[in-house]
Amino acid sequence: MFNPDRPYNELPMLPPRDVIETEEVLRQLVKSHKALAELKGTAQTLPDQSVLINSILIQEAKDSSAIENIVTTHDELFQGLTLSRAVSPQVKEVLNYRSALWEGYDFIKNKGFLSVNSVCSIHERLGTGTPGIRKLPGTVLKNDRTGRTIYTPPNDPNAMVNLLKNLEIYFNTQQDRPDPLIKMAVAHYQFESIHPFHDGNGRTGRIINVLYLVLEKLLSSPILYMSRYIIHHKADYYRLLQEVRTKNNWTEWVLYVLKAVEETSKGTLALITSIRNLMEVTAEKMKTLGGRLYSHELLDTLFEKPYIRVGDLVAKGIATRNTASRYLNNLTFIGILKPDKIGRDILYLNKHLFILLKQQ
Ligand SMILES: Nc1ncnc2c1ncn2[C@@H]1O[C@H](COP(=O)(O)OP(=O)(O)OP(=O)(O)O)[C@@H](O)[C@H]1O
Ligand SMILES: [Mg+2]
Prior knowledge:
It is built from 15 helices and five strands. It is mainly alpha-helical.
């Protein structure tokens, strides 16, 4: 018998009837919001947010791609960022993730909402397989270990479009209830269950999460990434997504996402604080060199990405080629940078920033 609530392969439209704001959920909501608000506040006090966004984003891009078992070393990845060319297909994947995220961020900043079309272009930027909504049937979600099919997402492109439109409305309608963090959990489940693309649904879904936090003004910039948390709690992630479907167990899934928000906010706050402290120490060391070497712009450039080149300073108008080269050599001399020859390029590594990011 046709059930209008479950039209497409058992996937009902939003909003779900049974998301329960239990006492445990409400308690966890308070903790998650507190941690998120602290992160937002601290990030806003930073002089140039883009410096941090870049560093944090590199980490996220790497983690998010690693869920697909793409192993990329920090060295290779950071060098790829500076050389702006993919040293390997894996690095390319990470760089794509990064530009997909920026594209999404630009979109919501300019438009104030997130449309199905922009989700499709975010996905296209990821460069995973065929772009656009799946046209051919056959996509199934399997259990990694047993290889058994656990869920068949909708296969009819029209059904997918209808479900995505429904999700778009849910996502962009701002109301007091349910709490936006609960809505983020619901929307993530729904997006992953629609599974509109051949590949890259997980990555697209994780980008949508952080964009949602910015849309809801819970963050001013895209600096909260849950990929790390998901990797560390991957079995639960898959199990709880599935239990929404099989047991209507929204509560545990919502709690999982709320805890991810709390823990990730705390971790990111700690990272920001460490980077900020390191920037202060580095500024003091730079000033000991006297002359005109120290400037805010140079300091920021040293923290935009772990490896920099003479050309980066020239491009920013910080110094001419000769002076820039002298600056970088002086910074090497006092132990801030370490030169590294990659092919015909010399890259200078911000040693302590690298250690900080690598420890993450
Ligand atoms: N039972 C399930 N119900 C809903 N969504 C699921 C289920 N199992 C897996 N998923 C989602 O599918 C994603 C994987 O899909 P896909 O391979 O298209 O994305 P990806 O970005 O390539 O991979 P990954 O998320 O592993 O990096 C998972 O991240 C998860 O969000
Ligand atoms: Mg995949």
